[in-house]
Amino acid sequence: MLSRVVTFYVGCAVLLIACERAPESKLVGTWRVASAENDGKIRVDADHTFTGGEWSLTETHQPPVIPDDGEWHIVGSKLVLNFRGEAHNPKQSKLVLTVRDDDHIVLRRPSGLETTLQRLN
Q: Smallest Cα–Cα separation from 97: which of 115, 83, 111, 82?
């Protein structure tokens, strides 16, 4: 009887150690993206919605902030963003998601362009 109990607890401990936070829970928070041309922030909420915006650092004729909002989910290794409103075309983006650590993620577009985001909170 004691060996069964010990085996059960060892199995539970191994499962807990092997468990890792799901990629979806790692995304929840506010993220900043910065490049030579653009800067921006996005807030990803646990209810699978997002809001954010980006602004050009090099072009003066663009609106100061281009707002984005919509819904998000993960399919396989891709982050899928479904945008609301008329300002965004196309209405959906599928980006390869790589979680580097708790404070950095990388999004790769189909063109191969990669963007690194840093967690703000």
A: 115
Answer for the pair 121, 32: CB distance below 8 angstroms, yes or no. Answer: no
Between the CA of residue 77 and those of 37, 65, 74, 84, 121, what are the distances in Å?
27, 29, 7, 23, 23
**pLDDT of the residue at 86:** 73
72 residue type, one letter: W
Q: Collect the ranges in the chain with pLDDT lower than 50.
A: 1-20
Q: What is the pLDDT of residues 99-117, one digit of tens each?
A: 999 999 999 999 998 989 9
Q: What is the pTM of this model?
A: 0.70
Burial class (CB in 10 A: 0-12, 13-18, 19+), 57: exposed
Q: Is cis: bond before 90, omega within 30 of 0?
A: yes
